[in-house]
Amino acid sequence: MGKLSVLSAGAYRGFSVTHIDVLKLLLAIKKVDIEAPIRGGGGERAIHLPCIWGSGGRGIDAVDAVLKYGANIDSTTADNRSSLRQAARFHGFGDLVRLLIRRGADIEVRTVLKETPCILLPL
Asked: Which of 25, 51, 53, 66 can pair with 86 through a Cys bridge, CB separation 3.0 to 4.6 Å?
């Protein structure tokens, strides 16, 4: 398995208690390109996967790990969706979104449709 696939699996499964340590180990040995797009995806990077699939504290742990090892908090997908927008879309405006904002995520990043993460705010 290539290094991109391994990091992808670690980030995707990073929300699992049994895999967060694997993710941290992969990141620590610096054998991965944290900003490389994930194969077969829509331009997602390591930070996007826990924002989409993570939940609760486990998702926060995975996001925190990839940020600690240099992931760009504002990296976007092929259609310009940010990690903040993905977290808000899939998990509402909870702890994961608050973490991203506290860590400096840009709330004004626009998608190709000119939408910001704020479009997902409940009225």
From this structure: 51
- Where residue 94 falls (left for φ over 0; alpha for ψ -120 to 50; beta otherwise) is beta
The predicted-structure confidence for 21-47, as pLDDT tens digits, reads as follows: 777 777 787 667 788 887 767 888 888
Read off the pLDDT of residues 57-107 as tens digits, 9 standing for 90 and up: 677 888 888 898 888 999 888 888 888 888 888 777 688 888 889 999 998
Residue 40 CA: distances (Å) to CA of 4, 14, 59, 64, 85:
11, 19, 22, 24, 20
* DSSP one-letter code for 117: G
First to last CA, the chain: 45
The CATH code belonging to domain 3-120 is 1.25.40.20
Closest CA to 82 of 121, 40, 122, 115: 115
The pTM assigned to this predicted structure is 0.76
Which two three-digit tokens encode residue 17? 């208690």
Residue 76 bridge partners (DSSP): 82
